[in-house]
Design a protein that fits this description.
InterPro entries: GntR_C, TF_FadR/GntR_C, Tscrpt_reg_HTH_GntR, WH-like_DNA-bd_sf, WH_DNA-bd_sf
Pfam families: FCD, GntR
Strand order of the largest sheet: 1-3-2
Radius of gyration: 18 Å
Number of domains: 2
CATH class of the largest domain: Mainly Alpha
Distance between the termini: 29 Å
CATH superfamily of the largest domain: GntR ligand-binding domain-like
Keywords: DNA-binding, Transcription, Transcription regulation
CATH topology of the largest domain: Four Helix Bundle (Hemerythrin (Met), subunit A)
CATH architecture of the largest domain: Up-down Bundle
Strand content: under 5%
Number of strands: 3
Shape: elongated
Largest sheet: 3 strands, antiparallel
Mean pLDDT: 87
GO molecular function, one term: DNA-binding transcription factor activity
Helix content: over 70%
Number of helices: 9
Protein name: GntR family transcriptional regulator
Low-confidence stretches: 1-8
Structural class: mainly alpha
């Protein structure tokens, strides 16, 4: 339960919880998502529930229709691949531009945030790491110093947010993510635009792999069940 946070934060948290439940098979395709029931289950009002369902609808995880409620859909690997390919290219572009455009202060702030995330990894705190991960990538978007590219990156990230948060349930994903971030940070710190682009593109591709692993594991459990 996260009832003491602002409404938008609660909605984002709830969207992540529901995405986890869908990707791990707890909520199977066709399952109905009742606002009142979800509000009671997660200890929140119906307002963040509605916002969470709206967010999930943009990802294709659920099908929400006016007056008919929301149901869990079956997201195809092709649909996910299209989103992640777009996300990878845009984030890689942000990293490349950041390597070229970040000020010394911005580079230090990025490095400081990255170092702080090491402690979160040691604690194994998936939720805290997911929150810090958003700040990490947003810092790179801002450091690109191109408002249009940053806006596109943020929009795509919102669509994929539940998936990106769910990835940290994959075994060993926190440490792997941190190592991937390290390669990006080092490239940006050196001002190596080509390497920053390459390492970020690789990072997002591995995020997609982690999400695919969760979906595959959930599918296998449903078959066995």
């Amino acid at each position: 339960m996260q009832s003491d946070s602002p409404a938008q934060t609660r909605a984002e948290w709830l969207a992540g919880e529901l995405a986890d439940a869908i990707l791990t098979g707890e909520l199977a395709p066709g399952a109905r998502l009742d606002e009142t029931g979800l509000a009671a289950r997660y200890g929140v009002s119906r307002t963040p529930v509605r916002e969470a369902l709206r967010q999930l609808a943009t990802t294709g995880l659920i099908d929400a229709k006016p007056r008919r409620g929301a149901t869990v859909t079956h997201v195809t690997s092709a649909q996910l691949e299209e989103l992640f390919v777009a996300m990878g290219e845009i984030e890689a572009t942000c990293a490349r531009l950041a390597a070229m455009s970040m000020t010394p202060i911005e580079r230090r702030r990025l490095a400081s945030l990255h170092q702080a995330m090491a402690e979160i990894v040691e604690r194994g705190d998936e939720s805290a790491y997911a929150d810090a991960n958003v700040r990490f990538h947003s810092t790179i978007y801002k450091g690109a110093h191109n408002g249009i590219v940053a806006e596109i990156a943020s929009s795509l990230r919102r669509r994929l947010a539940p998936f990106r948060r769910a990835q940290f349930r994959a075994e060993g994903r926190l440490r792997l993510s941190y190592a991937e971030h390290d390669a990006v940070v080092q490239a940006i710190a050196r001002g190596d635009a080509v390497q920053a682009h390459t390492t970020m593109l690789h990072h997002v591709s591995l995020v997609e792999d982690a999400v695919d692993q969760l979906a595959l594991a959930a599918s296998e459990r449903r078959i066995r069940g």
